[in-house]
Specification:
Blueprint lengths: L2 E3 L5 E2 L1 E2 L6 E3 L4 E5 L32 E7 L7 E11 L3 E6 L25 E8 L4 E6 L4 E6 L3 E6 L8 E2 L3 E2 L2 E2 L11 E5 L7 E7 L16 E10 L8 E3 L3 E8 L2 H19 L4 H11 L1 E6 L5 E8 L6
Parallel strand pairs: 1-5, 4-6
Antiparallel strand pairs: 2-6, 3-13, 5-18, 6-17, 7-16, 7-18, 8-9, 9-10, 10-11, 12-15, 12-17, 14-15, 16-19, 19-20, 20-22, 21-22
Helix pairs in contact: 1-2
Length: 320
């Protein structure tokens, strides 16, 4: 098994079975870099246009450029990829956030192309946060409030996913069964992300590093920055899952993405009950009872084209 360093030469605005950046084997670790959500690199410079996904017949929403895709040898439809996030090293001393007009939880007219013109959008505002990586702190001056705030960094992958099912191509702003733009703070170092293989090879991709973000990403933008990422790839043969699963030292988790938010909540918890029953020896209804009493949930986002909910079950209750 190998440690493989990759210097990206192309970035994509969609999840799909694009020309592979590399072909990996189960057990390999990929070490590579990401851009921020606006397509700027670690030096704050925009990439050359020829490095971005383009088309002669359509246009792309140019947000969340993705590194990859990475083709996993021997992975077939019905298998599962276990992506072990080993490290996310921030590579820039600042992050940006903003209020994009027509986007965010306070805007009814949230469309990926902006407001439709029937309501008053939020004012466009741009925020530049200073990142002190040594202190693990992000700082922002608030001149109108005459304050300064320091918050803890907790870097994670806003986007991580595989090629979607049914031959679909999904833009990098949208989460779905394939993962995608879940904006889930749990996709951090120490977490394993389990993704269903919907297309032979998997074609996993990632990007959209957030240095920090609150639950829901309510203004529509986290602390967007760049990073060097280490991910170890494991192929689990003949293991079929329907939605992304996650695991860290303390919890197993299921992420579900749809609208309305209550349906994402229902799907995530239904899938958790199934996981407890099929893999951990619980009776289905007894699993539902225990989950009802010890489960917790996080809201990844309430601003993307689909909303994300993560159901969490403490591993200490899995039993022997």
């Amino acid at each position: 098994m190998s440690m493989i360093s990759y210097n990206p030469i192309k970035y994509y605005y969609t999840f799909g079975p694009h020309e592979p950046a590399l072909r990996l084997k189960s057990g390999d670790t990929i070490i590579t870099t990401t851009l921020d959500s606006e397509g700027s690199d670690a030096n704050g410079e925009k990439i050359n246009p020829d490095m971005a996904q383009t088309s002669t017949v359509t246009e792309f929403y140019e947000a969340n450029p993705l590194t990859g895709p990475f083709y996993v040898e021997d992975s077939k439809l019905g298998d599962t990829l276990a992506l072990h996030i080993e490290n996310i090293q921030l590579t820039r001393n600042y992050a940006i956030s903003k209020f994009p007009p027509g986007f965010g939880v306070l805007n009814i007219e949230d469309r990926i192309t902006g407001p439709m013109g029937l309501g008053e959008p939020l004012p466009y505002m741009y925020f530049k946060w200073e990142l002190n990586i040594e202190r693990n702190v992000a700082s922002l001056d608030l001149p109108m409030s005459k304050k300064k705030v320091d918050i803890d960094l907790h870097p994670f992958l806003g986007c991580i996913g595989v090629a979607p099912r049914f031959g679909e191509i999904i833009n990098s702003l949208t989460p779905a069964e394939n993962g995608g733009n879940m904006d889930c703070v749990e996709t951090k170092p120490g977490t394993t992300v389990y993704l269903p293989v919907f297309v032979d090879g998997g074609y996993f991709m990632f990007g959209d590093i957030h240095a920090a973000q609150g639950d829901g990403e309510i203004c529509g933008v986290g602390l967007e920055t760049t990073a060097r990422v280490n991910i170890k790839v494991e192929l689990i043969k003949n293991k079929k899952i329907a939605w992304p699963r996650l695991e860290n030292q303390t919890h197993i988790m299921v992420a579900a993405s749809t609208r309305p938010l209550i349906d994402a909540f229902r799907i995530a918890h239904t899938e958790m009950v199934k996981w407890l029953a099929t893999d951990h020896g619980f009776d289905k209804w007894e699993a539902f009872q225990v989950l009802s009493q010890v489960g917790t949930a996080r809201v990844g986002n309430v601003v993307d084209p689909k909303y994300t909910v993560v159901a969490k079950f403490p591993k200490k209750y899995l039993g022997k």
